[in-house]
Amino acid sequence: MQETMTDEMLELVAQRFRLLSDPMRLRILHHLQSGERSVGQLVEATGASQPNVSKHLSTLKMHGLVKRRQEGNMAYFSIGTPFVFDLCNSVCTNMQEEWQERQSVLGGNG
Fold first, then answer.
1. Which of the residue ranges 21-25, 44-48, 66-70, 106-110 would you say has the lowest mean pLDDT?
2. 10-19: long-range contacts (C-beta < 8 A, 24 or more apart)?
3. Region 50-58 average pLDDT
4. Which CATH number does the domain housing residue 52 bear?
5. Is residue 46 included in any domain, yes or no?
6. pLDDT-based confidence at residue 108 (cuts at 50, 70, 90)
7. Number of domains, the chain
8. Do residues 43 and 31 make contact, with C-beta atoms less than 8 angstroms apart?
9. 89 found inside a domain
10. Nearest CA to 27 among 75, 62, 66?
């Protein structure tokens, strides 16, 4: 982390991490990683309700993590900040390594 981070910048970083702390938002981002999706496609892919998916998409859009495109009466969403996958991949790789270590220590019973 940069040494010259102001309190305001640190708050923005914390806000971004809070945004990514919701499993449903991560699930939505995961499904958008392979390309643009409609709300209906995301509802089907996540198994969540349409109002729930729409609420999370709205939050992600407000913070710039997703982009919205309107075509007729259909709204399509795509990734707005591809760097989010670099962060997610780093965390996921670390979590998989930790999980494998725990499994080997526990003899694969946990």
1. 106-110
2. 15/63, 16/63, 19/59, 19/60, 19/63, 19/65
3. 97
4. 1.10.10.10
5. yes
6. low
7. 1
8. no
9. no
10. 66
pLDDT (tens digit per residue) in 6-45: 999 989 888 888 888 999 999 999 999 999 999 999 999 9
Do the domain assignments include residue 45?
yes
Question: In a 3-state reduction of DSSP, which class is residue 70?
Answer: strand
The C-alpha atoms of residue 105 and residue 18 are separated, in whole angstroms, by: 31
The two three-digit tokens of residue 55, written as one number: 């609420």
Q: What is the domain range of residue 65? A: 7-80
11 inside domain: yes
Q: Give the number of other CB atoms < 10 A from CB of residue 9.
A: 12
Residue 109 has a pLDDT of 57
Strand 37-38 versus strand 66-71 pairing type = unpaired
